[in-house]
Design the sequence.
């Protein structure tokens, strides 16, 4: 994952669901100490419509 510290990240959505989950994951990743390595952010569906 490219270092996204000190960069602008734009996540579209209505502030709930997958957009909120992505924003939370990105915020968590960039809040880690500089010497911590966050290589991947994995998103998995918790429910699926049939």
Sequence:
């Amino acid at each position: 994952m490219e270092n996204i510290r000190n960069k602008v990240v734009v996540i579209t959505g209505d502030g709930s669901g997958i957009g909120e989950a992505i924003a939370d994951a990105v915020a968590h990743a960039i809040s880690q100490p500089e010497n911590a390595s966050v290589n991947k952010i994995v998103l998995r569906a918790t429910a699926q419509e049939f």
